[in-house]
Amino acid sequence: MSFTFVAPDTEKELKAQLSEAGSFLMTGGTDLLVKVRIGKIKPQKIVSTLKVPTLHFLENKVDELVVGATISYSELLDFKPLKKDLPILYDAIFTVGSPQIRNRGTLTGNVVNASPAGDGLLALYLLNATVEVSDGSVIPIEKFVIGPGKTILPEREYVRAIHIPKYNWNVHYFEKVGQRNSMTISVASVGWLIRCRNGAIEKFRIAYGSVAPTVLRLKEIERFAEGKTIDENFVHTVSEMVKKSVKPIDDVRGSAKYRKTLCANLVYRMIERRTKC
Amino acid sequence: MRTSNAKVSSNNRTKFNVVDTPVPKVDGYALVKGKTVFTDDFNIPNALTVKILRSPHAHAIIKSVDASKALELEGVICVLTHEDVPRVAYTRAGQGYPEPSPYDTFVLDKKVRYVGDAVAIVAAETEEIANRALKLIKVDYEVLPAVLDYEHAKDDGAPVIHDEPEISGAYDVSHNIASHYEMHIEDVEEELAKSDVVVEGTYYTPNQSHAMMEPHTAISYFDPNGRLTIISSTQVPYHVRRIIRHVFGVESRVIKPRIGGGFGGKQAVHVEAYVTAVTLKTGRPARCVYTREETMTASNTRHAMRFKVRVGASKSGELRVIDMEGLSNTGAYGEHALTTFMVAGSKTLPLYNKVKAVRFKGDIVYTNTEPAGAFRGYGAPQGMFALDCALDELANKLGMDPIEFKLKNSIREGETSPVFKVMGEGREGVEQIIQSCKIEECALEGAKLFDWYEKKKKPRINGTKARGYGVAFAMQGSSIPAIDMGGATIKMNDDGTFNLMVGATDLGTGSDTILAQIAAEVLHTTTDKFIVYSSDTDVTPFDKGAYASSTTYVSGNATKRAAEKMAQEILKAASEIMNEPVDSLHLENGQVVSENGTSLTYSEIQTKLFYTFKQRQLEVTESFVSEVSPPPYMVSFAEVEIDLETGKVEVVEFLNYVDCGTPINPKLARGQVEGATAQGIGMALYEEHVLDKNGRMVTNDFFTYKIPARKDLKNIKVKFAQSYEPTGPFGAKSVSEIGLDTPGPAIANAIFDAIGVRLRKLPIKSEEVFFALNS
Q: In whole angstroms, what is the distance from residue B308 CA to residue B202 CA?
C-alpha cells in the first residue's frame, strides 16, 4: 500500500490534482482510509479537500442551509440553528460513529461514499437536498446517488457543497437500529417528516436505509398519506405498505426477514410517540 | 520485631498504609504518553519481517509447496515449509509441565486443519516484500471434507482431523475427541427421582475473540554470545522458554515487555515458534506482528460449549441434584481443551455445596475451526451460564425468588464441597475449607442497593418497552493449587529504593503496581520506592505466568514473603550497625527505628553495607505455591430494557457485588470487574464468530465483530464486600476473571423476567429476541 497524498489549498489546484488517473478524493477519510487499509481500493494518489478554505463554509439562508464540503459532522452539530431549522439532520448525524469519527467525517463524504446505510444521506433524501458539483451543476440527491458506493459525480470534479431546503415540518423522526449503540452501521434506519394541516397530513416523507441498494424514499406511501389522519388504522396500512416496498438482503448484520419486519414495525413508533397532526 | 501491621480477623480489614488504597499505576504515565513499552516498539537492527502463509481451506493435505517464484523476489531471505522445521509434536498451551493438553500441534504440518492454519513461514527484508512473497507461493492442496459444526464432530463417518501418528494425550482421535472428562458424587438419577421439581435445559455459549489491543507479536535474535533471545507479547514467558526448547532443542532467554492486553489469548505460543525458526535458519533477527485478521482468525478463541443441564429440588427449595453434560469445541487443536472444560464444573459446582448428588461429564471435540484456548474465565463463564440459568428456571418453577433460592443452597464460610477434591485442572483437585465467603452480604446488600424487591413489583411491560431484572451468582478460584508457583526477588539499593523482580506478567491488569504495594506495605515505605521489573527469564525468578486468577494470590504471596525476609535482613543489618538487639527495632517510614529513638534510613543502611560495614548486597528471593485456591464470590444484578418492536436489548444497569477479599488496589480491582463485565456483556449480546460455508470466518475484523462500545455499557456499578482471606496477601483473593461469569446468566435471566421467553443460547442478539417475541 503506497500512494501519494496531496492537500491542495485552492480549488484550482484541487482540480489540477484530480486530473491525474488513479486519484481518489478524500473529504475526511473516515470511509476512504478504511477501504484503503483493507485493500478494497488501491489509490495511486489521495487528494484531500480539507485544506481548501473556499470549501469550508456554512451559509444559513432564509430558505436553505448550504453546507460546504469540508464541514465536519461535529462542526455541523455545533452550529446552533441546525437543531431548530433541520432537526431531522441533527438527529441523524448525531448517531454517526463516535465523537472522533464525527470530528473527522463530513456530510459531503457521506454523500459521495453513497452507502445505503449512510445516516446523513437518509436525512438529505428526506429533505430533498441538492448537491452542488464543481462543474456548476446542482443535482438532486436522489439523482446524484445511483447505487452502493456509486454516484454520478464526473471524474475530475468534486462536490462543493450540499444545499438543504428548509421547510416547516411539524413532525420529524429518525431512528437507526444497529448491532450496538454506537460505532455501528445500521441494520435498518428510518426517518419521516410530516407537515400537518387541519388535523390531517398535508405532506409526508418517509425513507429507509440499509434495505435497498440506495437509501429508499417510499413515494407511493408518501402520496397515500396525504390528507390522512394519523390513527392506528393509518399506521397499520403504512406498515403493510412498507413491508411490500423494502428489499433488504441477508448479511452479517441481520437477515432479510428481520430487516423487513423491523422496517414495518418501526412505523408503529408513531403510535408509541403519540404522533398526531 | 514488627514487619507487618496486618492483624485482622476474617471480618475486619485493618487500616493498611499502602494496601487497599488506590495508588496510581506504576506504568500509567508511560502508557498514556505513548512511550515505547510494547514488543513491537523494540528496535532490533537488521531484523527480518516474518509473515505466515495461511490455509484458505478448512481441512486439506498439502501435496506440494512451490516457493521458487517467491524466492526469486529480491529481499526474500527464506520460505520455510513443514520440511524445514523440526517435526516435534507439542501443545501451544502455556501451562505447567507436564501440560494436561494433547501434543497435537507442529510448528508447520503437511496437513492444515482450519482456514488460517499455518502453511509456510516467509522472511524478507521488508514487510512489503514479505507480503508480495506470500502471493507468489504456489500450494497444491488436496482438499478434505471438514467438520465445521462441533455438534457433529463425533458423528459416524465424520472426517478425522488428527490422524498424525505422533499425537499423544488425546482421548479418541478416531471420533475427533480431544479430551473426555466425567465425575459424579452419589446417584443423580436417584436424586432426580426424589426431587419434587426438575428443570432440564440445553444451553449454548459462543466462541469469543479476546480483542486485546496489542496483536500477537514476537522478535527473536541471537545476542552477541549466540544466545537465542525472544522478546514476546506473552503472558507466560517461562512456558514459552520451555516449549521452544522442547520443539527446537535450543536454550533461550524470553523477555516479556509491557503487554497490551491478553485476556488469556497470550497464554499460548503463537508467534514465538515462527520467529525462532527464522532466526535459527538465517542467523538474523526476526520480527512478526500479527495483523488484526490473524489475531481474530488464527490465534485462539473461547471454547464454545453446549451443556445439557438437569437440576432438581424439593418443594421447599432444597437443591438436591445438579447434572451437567457438556460438549466443548476446541477447534483444530486441543490447547487448554480438558482444563477449560473441567473449570466449567470445578469453578461453578462448589458454589452450590448443599446438593446431594452431582454429575459432570462430557467431551471436548476437534473441529476444523480456529483453535480454542485460554480466555478470561476459562470455562467458568460457559459452565455458569448453563448452571445459573437452570437454577433461575428452577426457582421460577418453584415460585421462589431466585436470590433466596440460590442463597439458600450456596456455600458459606467454614464449609467445603467434595467437588474441590474431585475436580482440579486436568487432574484431581485439593480439599479446602472455605475461610472467606461473603456471598450473603453480596446477595442481600446487593439486592438493597439494586432495589431488587421494589423493582420486581413493577409492571414489566410499558407500551412498546419491556423491563426485566435478573440475578446471577458466581465463584472463581485464586490460582491452580499445588501446581502453580511464583517467585519474587527484592534487592535493596543505597538510595533507599528496591528492585522488585518478578516473573509475574502484567498484561494490563496492574500487577506490577499491586505487587509493589504489597512489598511497600511490608517494608513500611511507599510504592514509588519500588522499581518493578517483569519479566525476563534470565533475570527474574520463575513465575508460572499471568493466568488462572493467580497473580495477586500466588505472585502476591511470593512478593510478601520476599518482602518479609528483606525486612528481617534489614533489621539484622541495622541491629549490627546500631548495636542494638533486633527486638528493640522496627520499620517505619523507610527507616529502622529503635525503642531509644535513634533511627537509620534504608539508604544509610545499604550505603554502609556497600562501602564501610560488613559489606554485602541485601537481596532475597522467595517462592509461593498454594495448597488451596480460595474462591472469590460475586452476585450480579442486571436490569434490561427490551424494545418490543425491534428486539433490541439494553443493559440499563449492572451491579456487581464482589467478595475478592482485600482489594489490594480498589481502583484497579474495580477496573478488573468493569472490564470483565464489558467482555461478559459482549459475550451475552453481541460477540459471535460467523463462518461461511467453507469455514472462513466472516467476522474477522472490528467492523463485523462487535464488542460493546461505550454507549452499550451504561451503568456498571462495582461494590466490594468486607472480606479478608487469611491465606492471601493482606487478605486478598483474585478478582480478574470472576466478573465474566455473571453477565451471561444475569442478562438472560433478566430477559426472561421481562418477556417471559427463556433464551438459552448466547449471544442473545436483537434479531433472536425479536423472533422469540414474534413466534
A: 4
Mean pLDDT for the stretch of residues A50-70: 97
Check pLDDT > 50 for residue B9: no
Helices (H), B17-67: 28-32
Element (H, E) at A146: strand A145-147
Are A17 and A108 members of one domain? yes
In this complex, the residue of B464, B686, B699 whose CB is nearest that of residue A180 is: B686
Residue B152 pLDDT = 98
Are residues B133 and B54 both part of a single domain?
yes
Domain containing B531 equals 28-37+485-625
* Enclosing domain of residue A182: 171-272
Torsion sign, CA atoms B408, B413, B417, B419: positive
Q: Supply the pLDDT for residue A21.
A: 84
Cβ of A272 within 8 Å of Cβ of B645? The answer is yes
pLDDT at B166: 97
Of the residues B297, B319, B340, which one is the last residue of a structural domain?
Answer: B297
List the single best residue of A36, A181, A187, A269 to mutate versus B (max B Cβ within 10 A): A181
Q: Are A116 and A214 in contact (CB under 8 A)?
A: yes
pLDDT the model gives residue A1: 64
Closest alpha carbon within chain A to B682: A180
Give the pLDDT score at B194. Answer: 97
Contact B698 A269 (CB under 8 A): no
Q: Please, which pLDDT band fits residue B419 given cuts at 50, 70 and 90?
A: very high
Same domain, A109 and A210: no
- Residue in B646, B650, B691 to test binding to A, most A beta-carbons within 10 Å: B646
Based on the fold, state whether residues B461 and B323 are members of the same structural domain.
yes
Closest CB to B646 among A183, A184, A262: A262
pLDDT band at B322 (very low <50, low <70, confident <90, very high): very high
Judgement on whether residues B765 and B659 belong to the same structural domain of the protein: yes
Tell me which chain A residue has its CA closest to the CA of residue B647: A262
User: Is residue A254 less than 8 Å (CB to CB) from chain B?
Assistant: yes
CATH of the domain at B259: 3.90.1170.50
B500 and B468 co-located in one domain: no
Find the residue in A nearest to B710 (Cα).
A182
Comparing C-alpha atoms, which of B497, B72, B68, B43 is closest to residue B231?
B43
Residues A48 and A12 in one domain: yes
Pairing of strands B286-289, B319-331: unpaired
For chain B, the residue count is 775
Distance from CA of B360 to the nearest CA of A (A): 35
Give the nearest partner residue to B712 out of A180, A185, A272, using CB atoms: A180
Which of A38, A180, A261 lies nearest to residue B706, judging by beta carbons? A180
Q: Are residues A105 and A23 in the same domain?
A: yes
What is the number of structural domains in chain B?
Answer: 3
Contacts of B244 (CB under 8 A, 6+ apart): B228, B230, B250, B252, B254, B269, B272, B273, B276
> What CATH number is given to the structural domain containing B637?
3.30.365.10
The pLDDT of residue B750 is above 50? yes
Tens digits of residue pLDDT in B586-633: 999 999 999 999 999 999 999 999 999 999 999 999 999 999 999 999
| B542, B548 contact by CB (below 8 A) | no
Contact between B645 and A34 using a beta-carbon 8 Å cutoff: no
Q: Does B646 touch chain A (CB under 8 A)?
A: yes
* Structure confidence at residue B13 (pLDDT): 53
CA closest to B763 among chain A residues: A179
- The phi-psi region of residue B43 (left if phi > 0; otherwise alpha if psi is between -120 and 50; otherwise beta) is beta
Q: Are both B616 and B553 inside the same structural domain?
A: yes
B635 and B751, same domain (yes or no): yes
Tell me: ipTM over 0.85. yes
Task: Give the count of beta carbons closer than 10 Å to the beta carbon of residue B172.
Answer: 13
Within a domain: residue B168?
Answer: no
